[in-house]
Amino acid sequence: MPRATSFTADTLADRALLHFWVHGFHAASMDDLVRATGVSRHGIYATFGGKKALFLACFERYQQTVVTPAFARVEAPGADLAEVAAYFETQIAQGEAAGLPGPGCFVANAATEVAPSDAEVAAKVAQHNARLKAGFSGVLQRVAPSLAEDTRSSLAEVMVVFTTGLWTLSRCTSDAETLRRAVRRFLQLIKGVAG
Amino acid sequence: MPRATSFTADTLADRALLHFWVHGFHAASMDDLVRATGVSRHGIYATFGGKKALFLACFERYQQTVVTPAFARVEAPGADLAEVAAYFETQIAQGEAAGLPGPGCFVANAATEVAPSDAEVAAKVAQHNARLKAGFSGVLQRVAPSLAEDTRSSLAEVMVVFTTGLWTLSRCTSDAETLRRAVRRFLQLIKGVAG
DNA sequence: CTTGTAGCAGAATGTTTGTTCTGCTACAGA
DNA sequence: TCTGTAGCAGAACAAACATTCTGCTACAAG
Lengths: 195, 195
What we know:
The structure is a homodimer of 195-residue chains. The first copy, chain A, has nine helices and no strands. With 195 residues, chain A is mostly helical.
């Protein structure tokens, strides 16, 4: 029997994700990725087949390990705006921990850099945004059941837009406290309409 | 006397801007830029010195030819939220005219792709965001002079975040009408607090 | 029309990219 | 202790990249 592999597809994707997240797709070379993951070129190609496929795997992994845990509380039955606040806080703190300017949101980065020239990534981004909108919409339904459906829908859209802007700015703004102030004020605006 | 140049630095930057705007920095090769601008490699290098310098010139040019005209009405004395609405509409329509998914905002794109690894670009992005905030803050001061200063400041921050998200989404969302709905709803939220 | 300057197109250069290949090594079974 | 399978590190590769160079060409002045 030959020796076992020293990594799994998931651990490889996790480490590559961190690198793509900070540096983006084009600026991350395979040499960088080999260094960052500790996995040989051969290992990466044998596992995923290429750079683009690795990127897509990282996208999936980001959903599973970052978005789902952070957004689950918003999607949970009974969630209200406090859960939305907690979601924002989690992601801002994550950027802060990585040393600001933070990496922002992997999906928002991919939307800007890769999606315009890649239909596969664009579809995944649209799917992610739809998920956010559904989550926010659920909270609004709970907090303000008397709201008309199209009002709720457009408010959820506003929250998606705000969320996206937050991650874009957290990539180049070195002041997490300003972002926190904006989040608090934004949630007050929503509360003003929704209850 | 030799023949005159068939382009000016400004027209060259204008054409390169369009290409960078849609494709981003890394995905735009010099070959692409030569094709897109109609200016020879020699001409580009003689005028700006390199790809990075060309990109910075495009940034400057974007401020002059896109941001300043579109944002001037917001910065004008006497501007109110209708001018903010017009600013958003101008940029959404611009994306639509370019064929959605639109190119978004050149600055927001640069913030995501280039700023994290380039201090010069990061500084320009920060400057741009400060300008937006100042413009929005001026409108709020006019519309709601009774608001406390820190309330106005954080509301302006919220508007900057929303604006940034709007351009990021307009790059991958094929539905300008949804963005328009979100803009209308967002301005209603602001009005609810400010006037 | 001649002339000479400087812009132009495209070839050439050296580096870096993504990808593939090769020889060696670790290690589970006999 | 042997054996052979399969992972590993690094060399090797072609393509693409930003940049530089070269010979030709257009054109304003005389």
